[in-house]
Structure formats: structure tokens, C-alpha cells
Amino acid sequence: PDSYARALEIALADAHTDAVLMILSPRFNTDLREIALRIASIAQNSKKPILASLMGGDGIAEGVALLNQQGIPTYRYPDSAARVFNLLWKYEENLRGLYQTPILTNSQENGSDRVLVSQIIEQAGDRTILSEPESLDILKAYGIPVIVTKVAESAAEAVNLAESLGYPVVMKLHSRTIIHKSAVGGVQLPLFSPRAVVQAYQAIEANVSAQVGGEHFLGVSIQPMLEIDRGYELIIGSNYDDQCGPVIIFGTGGRLVDIFQDYATALPPLNTNLARRLLEKTKIYRAFNGTNGLKSLNLANLEQIIVRFSHLVSEQPRIKTIDINPFFADSEQLIALSASILLHPPTTPPEKLSHPAIRPYPEHYIGPWTTKRGLKVLIRPIRAADEPLVRQFHHYLSEETIYYRYFHLVNLDRQTAYDRLTRICFIDYDRVMSLVVEINNDQTEEPEIIAIGRLNKLHGVNVAEFDLLVRDDYQGQGIGTELLQRLVTIGKKEGLDGIEGEILSDNRAMQMIAAKVGFSLHKTADFVKVELEL
After folding, report:
1. Per DSSP, what are the bridge partners of residue 191?
2. Exposed / middle / buried, residue 261 (Cβ in 10 Å: 0-12, 13-18, 19+)
3. Residues forming beta bridges with residue 75, ordered by sequence position
4. Helix (H) or strand (E) segment spanning residue 237
5. What is the pLDDT of residues 456-469, one digit of tens each?
6. Which one, of 5, 53, 6, 67, lies nearest residue 25 by Cα?
7. Which pTM was predicted?
8. 353: phi then psi, degrees, rounded to nearest 5
């Protein structure tokens, strides 16, 4: 027992140890009970996971029971324990990736022009296939760099466009009904002269007319030709899955995309951390740091493009699939050379559209407001990136305010613990909706949170529980009332049947706010139950 206890203490004290697996195969003179008691005693003071593998059939039953009673998991074989630890580590890494989400809050911040995208989709009418120029315009509207593309409806116009772009150029079929242009002879490259442009135009028109009919030929698109041998051809896309909604795809692209089948998938929306993980899952990622004379890519820029793409996929439910192939990447530029977008038919019911499995940031709940004293504030849903602001917010709360909110005192260290704040800031907007009231500090010119209100859906019923916290120095300005009214409005839009809450009997101010908003109050021995049917 002394040897096991000492070894365990040394292993736990090592800064390079994240967890300890204790393996015990007892001999005839092993005091298994004492060993288990000593390990359990050490485990009580350890913040690191301890796993145990006890091998010995029925003879180790008492030791297993003792360890399990102390919360130490036991396994019959060490490899099972190792697999469990790997799963623990992977789960923790996944949480860290999610908690580091730098969620963007509006069109200006992520550089997207949603109005333009909506116009392009609406102008498509009953069509479910967008032309390549339309598809590239949608990508560009979300800040994704695209190749310059000009449409020509005659050979002469094609020559003028080619000369303005500069030779060599690429010519592609312009059509609103054909996706795979190469399959119908709809791509001609490289073109180095006006004569080659005219011949290519005539060849594409003849190929399309012969194979699928002249009505599918609407002209051609002209693009400058890049030297792709100095970089990488990638694919960025999304497919619609009946269970998961839109799924993002990234990997090796080009004409041999189906041969290599080097791709990885992820669920939108993504942050830069999750985007990097998506890249790392592919084989081609190992070449991005430079290989065979090729320079390394700007991975930070590529991650940002993947993040913007994930916002496009999350925010445009009419889009069924997107295929950017090839997406060209080298040390100097990242750019989409070709793209195709398929839409859900306009008659598709809303519940059948491409809604993501992970709900994106509810931007439509952002709105300005002015307090009774003329203070201009912004009320918006909370973001994962608000963790530092929420930490600062708790420094301004008095003991009385904390007591009224939690029904007991909570010390500041616990209030601002990282694991607690991440659970507050990083939420599933389908189950929890938290609003923050934000101001800009006149002295520091930095944003500050002065109030937080939350709707938390209860399990098994279509009812949510609310809670409010307002900084002491901003109480009495109608902020709590406005927050609760907005939470009620959100509850109605989210289809809740009701909202309820519990307020301490001596918290008169909160009771007055609830009554003003329309809640019914029911007094009990220790608190006041408030309810509102929606």
C-alpha cells in the first residue's frame, strides 16, 4: 500500500501528468483493501482524473467496490481505461474549441451583404440552379474572394472582355440549367488570342446545342487564367442532410476530386478554431506549410474564409448545396475559380429548408434602446466572446443583488470562474436565450455589460424560466422591465406556452417588474412564484 500511495502521489504532482492510470494485478499477499483505501484518500485531494484497472477476477471485487464508492472508475483491462481517457481528452478539446467561438454579430462585422444574396435568390424565381456568375456573386457578398467573371452573349463581346481582362483567359458556358459544364463541352482553356476566343465561343455553342439543346446556351463567361501549378486546388462545399441540415465539406479539389476523396466534414456555424480542425482532418493539410518548392499558405486567412462560408450556409436556408471547385490557394492568394449553387424550390415548406443542426447567432433579436435617464444602450443576445465582459460585469454586483438572484451568497471567485462563465456565454440558442444590455464607456471607449436577462427552457415542458441581473449602479432606470418585456416577446416568437420564475419574498423591486410586465404572483412561505401564459 505504501508503494502504491507514494507512486500515485509522485505521478499526480508531476506538472506533465494530466491523469493517472493505476494498474493492479494482485498477488497472494497483496492487501487490496488497504491499497484501495489509500488511493481513495489521495483522490479526494486531487484535481486530476484517476482511473484504475484491477485484474484478478472475483478476487478484486472488494477493491473495485471501494474505489467505485469514492468515485474512481475501474476497468477490467488497462486498454479500456486508456480509451476512456482519450475520450475524456477529446471531449474536453471539443468544449475548448466551442468555448473559444468569436461569433460575429452583424453584417458589417462579418462583411456580408445579406440583402444582395436575398435579391439574387428571389430573382431566380422558380429556378433551383443558379448560374456561375450568380453563385460567385453570393460568395463575394459573404466576403469570400472570387475570380473576376464577365458574361458575353456574343463572340465579339467575348473578345472585348478577354482583351480587357488580359490573355490568357478561360471561357465557360453561361447557363441557368446546366451545372457540370465540362460534361457538355462547356469549358475552353487556355485562350491566348481573339481568334482562339471566337473559336472557343463557337465550339461551346455547338457542343451544348448538339448534346442538350440550344435553349441551354445563354452565352459564355470569361475569366482570367491563373497558374494553378504553383498552388493547391481545393474544394469547399456544403450538402444538405435530412437529419443534420447543411454539412460543410473541405478537402482536395480539382478534376480528380472523386479519385482522391480527401475531404472532411463539419456542422456550421464554425469559428476559426473549428475551421482549423476541419483543415487538419484532410491529407492535403500537411502540405499547407510548404512542400516541393511550394510556399506555405496563409492559414489564418483560409480559416476566416471557411468561417464566412459557414455563416453563408447557416444564414441562407434556401440554399441546398454549394460547390466551390476549384478553390485555388497559394502563398499570395486564396480565390474561388468556380462555383455552383442549388436552391430548394420556392414552394418548399419552411420546416423542410436547410436549417443548421446548430442554431446560428440570433441577430434579429438585436436592438437599440434608451433608458429613463437618456442612456443609449444596445440589447442583444449574448455571445461566447462576451466572457471577459461578463467577468467584469460581476465585479459591479453587490452582495444583496447576488443574494436576490441566487437565493444565497456566491463569492466573487466562483462568480467569475472560467468554466461557469463559459456556460453562461456559450449557449444553445434553441434551449437558452440570454440577452445582455451593452453600453460604451465614455472614459475607456470600451463596451461594458450592465445587465443580463435569460430564458431557460425547462425539460419536458414547453415553458421557460427567466432570471435577471442588473448592475447596482444602473438600477432604477427601467432596464429590468425592458429586458423582461423583450424576453416575453422572444418567448412568444419561439412558440413557448409560458414563462415562470421564482423571486425572494423581500425582493420587492423584482416583483413589481414582473407584475408590470403582466405576470401573476403567487406567494409561498419562502418566495413568490410568478407565471405568465403566452
Report:
1. 169
2. exposed
3. 53
4. strand 232-241
5. 999 999 999 999 99
6. 53
7. 0.72
8. -80, 175
